[in-house]
Write a structure and sequence with these properties.
54% helix; binds ligand C2E; alpha/beta; binds magnesium ion; 12 helices
């Protein structure tokens, strides 16, 4: 009968659903303790100024070093952190840690931090950022906050208000993963952006085999540049991609072609190397770092 068939179906799906809920609860429990146990870390990926080839700053990217699972990538735990609200304390930790790290860098290097939509719902967001900047003695102009189109469409009034206040303080706002969202051009125009980050799916196509895809990718880069904001191309992996971006007047680039995200010890090394190169250029002598 239909009744027993329904029950059979229910019995069939139940173990899998139960398994998923169980895995989710485990991950959530582990995430809560991870914050207290210091299992989260930040890696940093440089931004390169396309015209000069110089490093202009770093983006902080969250890593979870799980005692049993090993390195858990952000795509695996950030969505759950957003659903459970854990992204608020976790995001505050990211803001404080990244600003403390950037306090050790030369003043001309920016620090970029990714924000989740859920963080904007916390009335603490702006005060946390102001305190993190003050604690590190960092000028607001050195901080760049990365938000996605999807994030701002979600709760645009709340996000708009917070971004407006931060922008007034001098903090830079970047639109991440540009080209992958669904927002209208007029919607984009209303937000106080300083920068667009061209999604790596388009950068990838710039030097791809398909003519059609290459033309679309070029159009997206051109459009981002023509918005009159500064631009960063994400996921640059080849010299050919870089050459096209330079020809299109893209301002900055980021990707494995230059460096993957690295830990803070490597960042310190890169900064020392940069200082030595700078000293050589200006003919100054520096002590070996
Ligand atoms: P995103 O902000 O767009 O970061 C760029 C992602 O592309 C990073 O992945 C980076 O490691 C990767 N990537 C960089 N260069 C290349 C390249 O040349 N080729 C390829 N294939 N990939 C490249 P990751 O670190 O796994 O982060 C994924 C996403 O997780 C980020 O995308 C961001 O949306 C989110 N995320 C990371 N850290 C945080 C955080 O602290 N807070 C929040 N809310 N989200 C974060
Ligand atoms: Mg980003
Ligand atoms: Mg991105
Ligand atoms: Mg992305």
């Amino acid at each position: 009968s239909a009744k027993s068939g329904g029950r059979g179906l229910f019995r069939f799906f139940e173990p899998q659903l139960d398994h998923q809920l169980h895995a989710r609860r485990n991950l959530e429990r582990d995430m809560r303790s991870a914050l207290m146990n210091g299992e989260f870390a930040l890696h940093y990926q440089p931004f390169i100024d396309v015209a000069s080839g110089e490093t202009s700053g770093f983006e902080a990217l969250l890593r979870w070093n799980h005692p049993q699972r090993g390195m858990v990538p952000p795509a695996k735990f950030i969505p759950l952190a957003e659903e459970t609200g854990l992204i608020v304390p976790l995001g505050e930790w990211v803001l404080r840690t990244a600003c403390a790290e950037a306090a050790n860098w030369p003043d001309d290097l920016k620090i970029a931090i990714n924000l989740s939509p859920a963080q904007f719902r916390s009335p603490e967001l702006v005060p946390v950022i102001v305190r993190a900047l003050a604690a590190g003695g960092i000028a607001p102009q050195r901080l760049e906050l990365e938000v996605t189109e999807t994030a701002i469409m979600h709760d645009s009034a709340t996000v708009f208000a917070a971004l407006g206040r931060l922008h007034d303080l001098g903090v830079r706002i970047a639109l991440d993963d540009f080209g992958t969202g669904y927002s209208s051009l007029s919607f984009l125009q209303r937000f106080p952006f300083d920068k667009v980050k061209i999604d790596r799916s388009f950068v990838h196509e710039l030097s791809g085999p398909a003519e059609e895809a290459r033309r679309i990718a070029r159009a997206v880069v051109r459009f981002a540049v023509s918005l009159g904001k500064t631009t960063t191309a994400e996921g640059v992996e080849t010299g050919e991609q870089l050459d096209i971006l330079r020809a299109e007047a893209c301002v900055e680039a980021q990707g494995f072609h230059f460096s993957p995200p690295v830990d803070s010890a490597k960042v310190a090394q890169m900064i020392r190397r940069r200082a030595r190169a700078g000293a050589r250029r200006t003919g100054r002598r520096v002590l070996a770092g």
